[in-house]
Amino acid sequence: MRKLPKWIQDLRGLSPANFLFLTVAGLINAFGVTIFLAPVKLYDSGISGTSMLLSQLTPETWTLSIFLLLLNTPLFLYGLRRQGAVFTVYAMYTVAVYSLGAWLITDVLPVDVTMASPLAGSDLLLCALFGGLISGLGSGLAIRYGGAMDGIEVMAVIFAKRLGVSVGTFVMAYNIILYIICDVAWSSRAGSSHSTPSSPTWPPSKRWTSSWRAWTGPRGSLSSPSGRRRCAGPFLRPLSTA
Q1: At 64, which helix (H) or strand (E)?
Q2: CB neighbours of 9 closer than 8 A, spacing ≥ 6?
Q3: How far lies 213's CA from each of 119, 141, 175, 192, in Å?
Q4: How far apart are the first and last CA of the chain?
Q5: How many CB atoms lie under 10 A from the CB of residue 167?
């Protein structure tokens, strides 16, 4: 009898209880991001933050959910050999639930998240606090039950050693570059809005970026407990005014 590939044998270790908690984690993260962060142009870290920025700069048909799937799925598949089949399945499932939750909140449910948070209004501090805490809770829950909310950790594990830096340093550098791009993108939009009154604008003084997950744990693979530890904390910085 032909022996099954190892990655298929590993799938026997999948747990229904883990899928249940990962479902909760994905929905919690979607709630925190779409209700508190995205409406007031606050940005998550990693691939999630990149997806938020791209969804705001592209036509409305390219939603946050689409970018979350497009950017995260290749990273998880690329890290399949290093991280293992169980982690990859759990992580992809979590991102799928996160994407579905974000789509339901922004496009299906009768909730207006276009200009301000439905629960915190335009108060940036409240949005950053609640958005960061809630999305951080979802991310931590995902890691606790064997998955991941963002493909940046996989990218960091893969490329950090090649670049001679730690996983945490790689993630921090990625987020700094992301926030610089956010600054440039919204500054250029604010400049063009002066010549086009009909264009939607966002006051430069209110454009902040946030990340409550800007730092991951020490060197190591996400497949080990030590490689999954994070040091979560606020990363808030005001962007330059136009």
Answers
A1: helix 64-78
A2: none
A3: 22, 13, 10, 32
A4: 69
A5: 25
Does the pLDDT of residue 220 top 90, yes or no? no
Separation between Cα atoms, residue 190 and residue 157, nearest integer Å: 37
Residue 95 has which token pair?
A: 């991102």
User: Is residue 98 helix, strand or coil?
Assistant: helix
CA dist 85 and 223 (Å) reads 11
Give the DSSP letter of residue 208. Answer: E
Of the listed ranges 1-5, 138-142, 227-231, the least confidently predicted one is 227-231
DSSP 105-148: IIIISS---SSSBTTTBT-HHHHHHHHHHHHHHHHHHHHHTT--
Which whole number is the average pLDDT over 73-77? 89
pLDDT exceeds 50 at position 26: yes
Cβ atoms of 74 and 118 closer than 8 Å = no
CA distances from 211 to 1, 6, 54, 149, 198 (A): 52, 37, 17, 14, 31
